[in-house]
Amino acid sequence: MVELGVNIDHVATVRQARRTYEPDPVAAAYLAELGGADGITFHLREDRRHIQDRDVRILKETISVHVNMEFGCVREIVDIACDVKPDWALLVPESREEVTTEGGLNVVGDSKRVADAIKQLHDAGIAVSLFLDPDERQIESAAALGVGAVELHTGPYALAKGEAFDRELQRLKTCGQAVVDAGMRLHAGHGLTYKNVQPVAAIPNVRELNIGHSIIARAVMVGIQKAVADMKHEIEVATRSTSP
Ligand SMILES: CC(=O)[C@@H](O)[C@H](O)COP(=O)(O)O
Ligand SMILES: NCC(=O)COP(=O)(O)O
């Protein structure tokens, strides 16, 4: 079975737009779990633009499916992960200027920073996964670093059209096989939607897909009707009690 990890970052994005308490990504994670999520994913960014430290701690305490924490190789965040102990730590490249993660981590050549983070996480008993472009050299280096999983970056696939789409899908298949042959778990994610998920879910031996933006975008849409009806109800109740 291919597991679904639901990324709840953008529930927190809406909350942080007003620096208030709602919507709470912890509540969203609970509902995602009720809906059948096999895991909950979130990205604790250095700039704290969406997920906050408080979310990370409460999520780890309250979620019963596996917790996948994404972050860059920054000492402060690696220390938080070692303290909170998610089931998986997904190391990603991160820049403050980006709107979202733009590419895979580069682990070819000098990867001391990554190797140090992996060691610290492993010493804390946390399984480590690396977010990589579908590039065989990166996968070879990931295997040498001793991580348990690779999450293939599906962003370029998600954006590709026509022949490029077939090419990107083939890269994912070829590199997916390389991940499995090297003895690591195969995960994939980024930019997956209701329209483009099936070819990726059908890649042999893929164990987990992490999907966020598209699910949260759909949740906003399918939930609006009830949210408006609930507000109408509140107003009507008040009007009933105050009208002559
Ligand atoms: C690693 C990855 O592909 C994305 O999940 C990304 O890290 C999510 O971060 P944002 O939600 O800030 O785009
Ligand atoms: N690692 C990928 C992820 O968690 C979800 O990415 P997206 O679906 O929000 O693009």
UniProtKB/TrEMBL annotation:
Gene Ontology terms: cellular component: cytosol
Q: Which GO terms describe its molecular function?
A: pyridoxine 5'-phosphate synthase activity
Q: What class of enzyme is it?
A: transferase
- The positions annotated for binding 3-amino-2-oxopropyl phosphate are 7, 18, 191, 212-213
Named in its record, the pathway it takes part in is: Cofactor biosynthesis; pyridoxine 5'-phosphate biosynthesis; pyridoxine 5'-phosphate from D-erythrose 4-phosphate: step 5/5
Give the EC number(s) under which this enzyme is classified: 2.6.99.2
Which InterPro entries does the UniProt entry name for this protein?
Answer: Aldolase_TIM, PyrdxlP_synth_PdxJ, Pyridoxine-5'_phos_synth
The residues listed in the UniProt record as binding 1-deoxy-D-xylulose 5-phosphate, with positions renumbered to this chain, are 9-10, 45, 50, 100
Q: Which GO terms describe its biological process?
A: pyridoxine biosynthetic process
Identify which residues the record assigns to the active site.
43, 70, 190
The site feature described as Transition state stabilizer is recorded at: 151
Under catalytic activity, the entry for this protein gives:
3-amino-2-oxopropyl phosphate + 1-deoxy-D-xylulose 5-phosphate = pyridoxine 5'-phosphate + phosphate + 2 H2O + H(+)
Q: Where in the cell is it found?
A: Cytoplasm
Kindly state which keywords UniProt assigns to this record, in alphabetical order: Cytoplasm, Pyridoxine biosynthesis, Transferase
Family affiliation = Belongs to the PNP synthase family.
Q: Known NCBIfam families for this protein?
A: pdxJ (TIGR00559), PRK05265.1-3 (NF003625), PRK05265.1-5 (NF003627)
**HAMAP family in UniProt:** PdxJ
User: What function is annotated for this protein?
Assistant: Catalyzes the complicated ring closure reaction between the two acyclic compounds 1-deoxy-D-xylulose-5-phosphate (DXP) and 3-amino-2-oxopropyl phosphate (1-amino-acetone-3-phosphate or AAP) to form pyridoxine 5'-phosphate (PNP) and inorganic phosphate.
State whether it acts alone or in a complex, and with which partners, per the record.
Homooctamer; tetramer of dimers.
Q: What is this protein called?
A: Pyridoxine 5'-phosphate synthase
The species this protein was found in: Rosistilla ulvae
What is this protein's gene name? pdxJ
